[in-house]
Amino acid sequence: MPPPPLTGRPNWVEIDLTALRHNFSTIREYVAPATVCAVVKADAYGHGAVECARALKNDGCKWYAVASAEEGEELRHAGITGHLLLLSGFWRGEEEMVIAESLTPSIWDPRQVELLEVAAKKLDKAPESVAVHLEIDTGMSRTGISLDQLDDMIDVLKASHHLSLEGVFTHFLSAEVVDSPDPEKQLAKFDEAVDKIQAAGLEPAWRHVANSAAIACRERSWKDMVRPGISLYGYYLPFLSVISGHSEVTPDLPVVPVLRWKTRIIALRRVPERTPIGYNSSYITQRASLIATVPCGYADGLNRHLSNRGQMIVKEHRVPIVGTISMDLCMLDVTDIPSVDIGDEVIIIGDSGEVRLTAWDHAMHSQTIPYEVLSAISPRVKRVFVE
User: Fold this and answer.
1) Domain count, the chain
2) What is the pLDDT of residues 162-173, one digit of tens each?
């Protein structure tokens, strides 16, 4: 891969667009003939939404999912011409922009229909020209229309002049729990809702349920379209068992991590035994040590819970993070690394030789999930896009 920019703070992520396209093609072939809607919300989980969407567009992607109208507008202005699905709907006051930018909002409340109708009329849109996707609440209890309110929502949609019900979808509670009864119960509720919608004379072209975990292990949920998020960037949650409580083997869907996070050593300091390191002396050396400082801290997205727990890679060796991670800096114990020097590359997420650190490694030490590790990487960390 090319070296990072020679100027500026040496803290960057490399986004491998070839790996991204590999993952997209792998998922597309796996779920065929279902369509793949690439989830690029939250700046593509920290990978850079515009650049990732452009790369996927060149590989034939037609559908993208974002969280908000603002995210959709950014992609539209960047030249993304496909369908842009707003998974979290829209905020009051955004309805005109949603229609003007040809975004596809999810809806679950009659008031959303009213707002879109008023905006479409103001913009002089043609009948049934505003596509919407109706979210069904099958058990998440977050957003979505419940089954007992669905009849009223159907009446509102049928009475609308400008809206067209293009899709129906729901969200799984626990698709990664392989023997949980919840996903099958949710699918049954979803199918019941779709039957009721079709019986009322509405014919949505798209039904979509499956997230990354369901793509890998719940074929019945694929329907017309799937929505890979974390798997598009090379990760999965572990597949768990309710009965045994153990992780199960991940199905054979060979996606690869897209992101590598790197920095460089900016200072080296030899210190004697019993030397406190960092804020509040949270680490005390147990021997004479060589301590490296790198320009990466919690303002860059390096979780503070990695203090005295996490690791980085220097010269194909894992080295421990020592002391409390500060806003802009953290320290590493590189005592056992031969010929270490200022300017040496340090890998935060990625691999060197046979040694690898993934977002999962950081997540386990931080008691979180790789979704948070990746999406928390700060915008001030430079993104370098490579092929």
Assistant:
1) 2
2) 999 999 999 999
